[in-house]
Every structure is written in structure tokens, then in C-alpha cells.
Amino acid sequence: MRLSFDHDLVEAAYLALGPRRDPAREAIYEIGDPSARDAAFCYHVSEWFRAAGLEKRVRDAFAEWPMVIGACQEAVVRRVKNPADEMAELFRGGEGVARVGVGIRSARIADGTFVGFLRHELCHIHDMIDPAFGYPGPGAAGAGIEGSLHRERYGLLWDIVIDGRLGRRFPEDGGFAAALGRHQKALERGFGFLPEAEREGLFAALAAEDAPHHDRLWEIASDPRRRGAESGARMPGGACPVCGFTTFEWAESEAVAGAAKAIATEFPEWSSEEGCCGRCAELYAAVAGASVPATVLLPTRGGRATWGRVA
Description:
There is one protein chain. By secondary structure, this protein is α/β, with parallel strands linked by helices. It has three domains: 2-129, no CATH class; 144-224; 238-305, no CATH class. It is built from 15 helices and eight strands. It has helices spanning 7-16, 23-28, 34-51, 54-63, 66-71, 106-111, 114-129, 144-169, 175-190, 196-207, 214-222, 226-231, 253-266, 278-286, 294-297, and strands at residues 2-5, 72-79, 87-92, 98-104, 238-239, 246-247, 300-301, 304-305. The strands form three sheets. The protein has a four-stranded mixed β-sheet with strand order 1-2-4-3. The protein has a two-stranded antiparallel ribbon with strand order 5-6. It is elongated. It starts with a strand and ends in a 6-residue tail after the last strand.
């Protein structure tokens, strides 16, 4: 993989270290020809970047991700001024050619945080390339306000998984533990509708995950209350796995048992551990011996029967 650096980044990194005496740079000002002078400045800061070991440290950070190196033809590291623009992006061209673009602030070069930043961002790229992660590619996520919220939650969950892995892989770098602390606070804000124990369990599971999968992260991001049914905790406001409607009245175990056979007949993948709302338990128990399927009697949304199981 060919790695190149935006000259603006290298120049800004040089200046970010603050004023200092540099006779070689001062001598360049004596060059009369503007073009020759600019070329001399460019060469000088490039040599400084290499001599200071900064170029090698960036190359070493890329070398930690052989899957990225093997899959991408080129990587460009460029300067950005806005922290919101700091990220690594994967570009796929024709014939399967992939390139990586990394935006980074020059201040990171000066304060030394660029290595941890690169590790985090390149782990994102690694996951996107890794077939085991199952990243779907651009345009797969939902659109609109709800889709934006889901993407924001998804990004947070993915960051937790990444920094948890990096903290175990690079224990000498305390930045990942600090990042996890920030992520946990963000999880408390963004998932405040979940009970405290549920949030803590979710965070601990994600931070300890070594083999994440896109579909699982997206499922949690788009329907976090669904986790209640999976863990056996039937949460108020969660979706009933039978009818799909939000419920605050889950059926008692005895009621679920009385309706279980009829429910399982129409929803073979359903299990009694998932439970159901009181309405479904009552309905399926009442029609257990009837010839008309209970799904025919369920309410509808938008004129369509709601008998499809919510995944």
C-alpha cells in the first residue's frame, strides 16, 4: 500500500510545535525565486517530518493492520481543522480497488495523540474490510430522523467495541481506557431509557467483545429494548415478540404457558422464554381450539395484518 502525506499537514505539524530556532529554515528566506523558495520550504519540513520519526510512527500504525494494508492500494493522510472531520474513510473504486483517506488535526502530531487516533480509526477500516464483521457498505442504514438516531447509537456501540479491543491489545496506551470512560457516559445519556443494570450489562458485554458483528450492533442500535426479551427481562415499553406492538403489560408466566402451544403453531421460532403481551396471551389462549388463526384477530397497522414476527 502506498502511503502519502498532505504537505499542509506536515507544515502545520511543524508550526504546531511552536517557535524555535531553525537555522536551515531561516536560510530558505534568502532564496529570491518564489517557486524555488516554496520548494525548499516543502523539502525542509518533509525532511524534518522524517527525521523526527513522525513518518515512521504513522507507517508503523498502519502496519499494525495487515488486512488494511493488503486490501487497500493507497492511503492519504491529510490535515483537517474541525475535530468533527477527524476520521478515516474507506473508498472503493472500480475493479475492487480500495483506498483510505485519513483526516487528522495537526495538533495531534504535536501532542503525540495521533498514534492512538490512527489505531482507533484503522480498526474501523479493518472491521469494514473483514468479512467476519459483515459491514454492509454505504447506503444500507436507515434514512430520516429515526435512521440518524440509529446511526448515532450504532457509532457509539461500535466505538465501545473498538476501544475495548484496543485497550486489551495495547495495554500500555491508557487512552483507550479513558475513551471507554467517555463512551460509558455517552451510553448512559443515549440509552437512558434502559434500566441502569441493563445499561451496565450492555456496556460490559460490548467492551469485552472480541468478535463483533455489524448486524448485532445495528440490531441493538435500532431496537435496544428488544434486548430485554433476549435476556429474559421483559421491559416496560418493549415490543411484544408476537404482535410487534409496544406493551407495558407483559403476560405472567402462567398465562404465557397457557397460550404457548397456540403461539408456537403460528410462530415456530418463538419460545416461551421471550414471553408476550397480555393481549396476545389472552387471545391465543382463547382461540387455542378454534379453527381461525389468532393472527386473523390481531389488530392491524396501516391496513396490514401484524402477524409478521418482529425480528
